[in-house]
Structure formats: C-alpha cells, structure tokens
C-alpha cells in the first residue's frame, strides 16, 4: 500500500491545487489551524478559491494570509468579527461571503461527509439566513432547508496520526477538523506527531484513516493566543 506520509507540506499538496477550487480549512479561532499547509497554498499562486472555514484566521496568521494575497474569492463562514481584513474586503465588494450560523455550518459539513444532501433547521428562520431557501412546517414550526457542504480539498490539523491515517485531536483543536476530514475528495492532514502503527487503542481514534489521504509533520506549531485575558495577582497581606 502506498504510504500516506509525505516529506513536507509542499510535497503533500503537489498536484491537488488549481484555480477556482473549493477548500475546507479546519480550525476555530486560532485553535487547530492547518498553519503549515496554508502558506504553501499562498506560495502556489492559485486564485479564485472558495474557502469553507469557521473564520479566516487573525492578523498575519492562518487564512488571513490568503486574504492578504487576494487568492480567496468567496468565504463560507460563521464568524467574521475581529478580522479587519476580512471585514474590509467584504464591505468593499472584493470578497463574496456566505454567512452561516455556527451550528448550521458544522452540520452542513457533517452532512457533506455523511452523504446527506439537505436537512431542516429552525436556526435562521425569519432572518436573512433563510432568504432564497425553502421553508417548511413540521409539527406547527417553521424550518429552513440547508444543503450539504463538500470540497475538493480539506486541510486539517490533528495532534497525532499513525501511518494508516488514524487521527487523534487535542482538546479544542477537535473542532471542525474531524467533520472536514470526511467531506472532501482529498484530505491532507498536518500533525504534531506520527506514531507507530498499533499505538492507538481503537476507542481512542477520533477520525479513522479511511478519510485521510496524505499526512505531514507540522512545520509550524505556534499555538498563538488570540486574546490573552489576565487579572492582577492578589497581594497577600
């Protein structure tokens, strides 16, 4: 069987990138971002990308660098706030935005991986989120129909992988990453550690290797704190 382990982010993305493609990018805030793979997408020069991600990084980090290079044409996201570049490009009409409630975004991705073309939810009924979408009544309540999300490529970050591609995530880095691994034609994973086959107990595997095509060791593991909140230390009498 061909090895899933590649030597570098650039090699792992070789032959996968092209103009106009759709990419899912894991992460929530700055937690669990595929921070080694994103710079390689920038350096490839591909353009007019549709990117599905909860947000778009923060100043100078994560997907922000693809916004700065004007390689993203459309974002399918949940959280726009606090990313001034994201906000500016959208308000200037330079970036198309499909805004989703956060739970709806997660479920659309999960549905894409599960082969469920559409589902109904109360979230967004009566708001701009529901504009242009079918609304039906179930047991006296209105529900808006949402459709699945799928991608040409998913780039995700995990904590550990074995050679078969079985993954474990660490704490809040287990956000959109596991679902995105299931919802693309090709999934490329960067991990902090590659462990020998047989290391994982089956019950500890959070994403089975059947969903993973390529694995690389992370070259960037900054784990930045987006907002550091502290309080003054109490002075002991």
TrEMBL record:
Highest taxon of the lineage: Bacteria
- Enumerate the Gene3D superfamilies for this protein: Glutaconate Coenzyme A-transferase (3.40.1080.10)
Instruction: Name a Pfam family for this protein.
Output: CoA_trans
Q: Which GO terms of the molecular function aspect are on file? A: CoA-transferase activity
- UniProt entry keywords in alphabetical sequence: Transferase
Q: Does the keyword Transferase apply?
A: yes
Please name the InterPro entries in this protein's record.
3-oxoacid_CoA-transf_A (IPR012792), CoA_trans_fam_I (IPR004165), NagB/RpiA_transferase-like (IPR037171)
Instruction: Output this protein's name.
Output: CoA transferase subunit A
Q: What organism does the record attribute this protein to?
A: Sphingobium psychrophilum
């Amino acid at each position: 069987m061909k090895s899933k382990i590649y030597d570098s982010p650039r090699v792992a993305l070789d032959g996968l990138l092209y103009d106009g493609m759709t990419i899912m990018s894991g992460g929530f805030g700055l937690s669990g971002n595929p921070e080694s793979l994103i710079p390689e997408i920038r350096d490839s020069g591909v353009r007019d990308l549709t990117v599905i991600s909860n947000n778009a990084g923060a100043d100078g980090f994560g997907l922000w660098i693809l916004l700065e290079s004007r390689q993203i044409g459309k974002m399918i996201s949940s959280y726009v706030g606090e990313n001034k570049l994201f906000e500016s490009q959208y308000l200037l009409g330079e970036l198309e935005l499909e805004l989703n409630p956060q739970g709806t975004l997660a479920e659309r991705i999960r549905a894409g991986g599960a082969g469920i073309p559409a589902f109904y939810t109360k979230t967004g009924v009566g708001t701009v989120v529901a504009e242009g979408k079918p609304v039906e009544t179930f047991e006296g309540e209105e529900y808006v129909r949402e459709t699945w999300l799928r991608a040409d490529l998913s780039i995700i970050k995990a904590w550990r992988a074995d050679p078969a591609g079985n993954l474990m995530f660490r704490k809040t880095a287990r956000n959109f990453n596991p679902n995105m691994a299931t919802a693309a034609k090709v999934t490329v994973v960067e991990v902090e550690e590659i462990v020998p086959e047989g290391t994982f107990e089956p019950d500890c595997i959070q994403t089975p290797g059947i969903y993973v095509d390529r694995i690389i060791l992370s070259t960037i593991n900054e784990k930045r704190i987006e907002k550091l909140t502290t309080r003054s230390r109490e002075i002991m009498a």
